[in-house]
């Protein structure tokens, strides 16, 4: 089965301005994802979808071609990842290349590696619509998450009689690192509407998705600790 890796990298970012090419531990953030993708895929099957000339320059400096410039209407704050994926698939279809699987790799996951990508792909089969990377959430809706009712009182988000968090069912959150998607299913509906989805579990320390300045500071700290020589 032919697989296309897509790395969306919009130029605009409000949480951390210019984050996709901002240096993290000496390397542009997007470089971590490019390097991980290259451990698994040939360059011709890696698609950087961006609207930014600056990002294109950084990608070219890595020796990787950018197949197209993403249209402005797909580069706004409200543009959906689904539309970005469909646009990329259509571009390659027009070039005579059709893919069976799409692997979505967000540039904001610098601790995801080629091994993670390979392991997620190994779980995929044609009976599922998507394999998605997850980590066990500490914000368990059976225990620590609450919503307001119509009278303004807090009620548990999910009812259950548990006296400790350890007794609660495990709950998983998408960590944004790896999505292995059935391309045919994606042509029919958004990956957010899929029902046949299975998990690929990643450790908390590999699951950081950079969205805020605090996330960035934490990533810098993690990188510095990982780079300390072991005695």
What does this structure look like?
A 6-stranded mixed sheet has the order 4-1-5-9-6-10, sandwiched between helices. β7 (146-148) and β8 form a beta hairpin. The longest helix has 14 residues, at 81-94. The chain has one domain (3-136, 171-226): Spore Coat Polysaccharide Biosynthesis Protein SpsA, Chain A (Alpha-Beta Complex), CATH 3.90.550.10. 27% of the residues lie in helices and 20% in strands. The model has no long low-confidence stretch (mean pLDDT 93). With 231 residues, the protein is of the alpha/beta class.
Mean pLDDT: 93
- Helix share, percent: 25-40%
CATH topology: Spore Coat Polysaccharide Biosynthesis Protein SpsA, Chain A
| Name of the level-1 CATH class | Alpha Beta
Gross morphology is globular
E-strand count = 10
End-to-end separation in angstroms reads: 45 Å
Order of helices and strands: EEEHEHHEHEEEEHEH
Count of the domains: 1
CATH architecture type: Alpha-Beta Complex
Q: Determine Rg (CA atoms, Å).
A: 19 Å
CATH superfamily: Spore Coat Polysaccharide Biosynthesis Protein SpsA, Chain A
